[in-house]
From TrEMBL:
InterPro entries: Glutathione-S-Trfase_C-like (IPR010987), Glutathione-S-Trfase_C_sf (IPR036282), Glutathione_S-Trfase (IPR040079), Glutathione_S-Trfase_N (IPR004045), GST_C (IPR004046), Thioredoxin-like_sf (IPR036249). Keywords: Transferase. Transmembrane segments: none annotated. It comes from Bradyrhizobium betae. Residues 2-84 form the GST N-terminal domain. It comes from the Bacteria. GO terms for molecular function: transferase activity. This is Glutathione S-transferase. Residues 87-214 form the GST C-terminal domain. PROSITE patterns: GST_CTER, GST_NTER.
Length: 215
């Protein structure tokens, strides 16, 4: 079986996506906490040694460093024959929601949450802009989940793992009460949390936490 090392920090929803996928597939990984808040990933040394793109997470598979969460999720789905597509139609739908998430939902939520909770001084107008965009994206997802249990139908895939990652963090970080504002998303998050082996990010990803200024 492959051996895994995951370079991460606990607040990283993208790190959580890989940690959760491995866990749900019955695999363990060696956690490698990374001082993202202290600027380690911005150093030339780290980028040369770990990831030239300067991003977390990095997944080492038998010593080979691999990056970019979406293709890694797809690779793991294919490897373990879990949480992937079974038909060409499902493959298209899975990719459609996965790419939408990367470009829209995760893309905006990751930045909004970081600025809102983990930045001591932020620009209210920038936060207002991001919030407005997020409310649009969350509305799209909520309407979809009103008639589909998961992203592509009746069973979860890596598209769900990708979309739920940043949304499952505590509300004092992202500032949304999904039970009130987006009940279909709230119910879907519950379905994801009921999967055998599921754990939240702060259980799967130990280590020093960043200061939450939004509390």
């Amino acid at each position: 079986m492959p051996s895994y090392r995951l370079h991460y920090f606990p607040e990283s929803g993208n790190s959580y996506k890989l940690a959760l996928m491995l866990t749900l597939c019955g695999e363990r990984f060696e956690p490698v906490w990374t001082d993202f808040g202290g600027g380690l990933t911005r150093t030339a040394e780290w980028r040369k040694a770990v990831n030239e793109m300067g991003e977390i997470p990095v997944l080492e598979v038998d010593g080979v460093k691999m990056t970019q969460t979406a293709p890694l999720l797809l690779k793991l789905a294919d490897q373990y024959k879990r949480f992937g597509a079974e038909t060409e139609e499902e493959k298209f739908e899975l990719l459609r929601w996965l790419f939408w998430d990367n470009h829209k939902l995760t893309g905006y939520m990751a930045t909004y949450r970081f600025m809102r909770a983990f930045t001591e001084k932020n620009d209210p107008q920038v936060l207002k802009h991001f919030r407005r965009r997020l409310e649009d994206f969350l509305g799209i997802l909520d309407r979809h989940l009103q008639h589909d249990a998961f992203a592509i139908g009746t069973r979860p895939t890596v598209a769900d793992i990708s979309m739920m990652a940043y949304l499952h963090y505590p509300s004092d970080e992202h500032g949304f009460d999904f039970a009130q504002s987006h009940p279909a998303i709230h119910a879907w998050l519950g379905r994801m949390a009921a999967l055998p082996g599921w754990k939240p990010a702060y259980e799967l990803l130990p280590g020093k936490r960043m200061t939450n200024y939004a509390k």
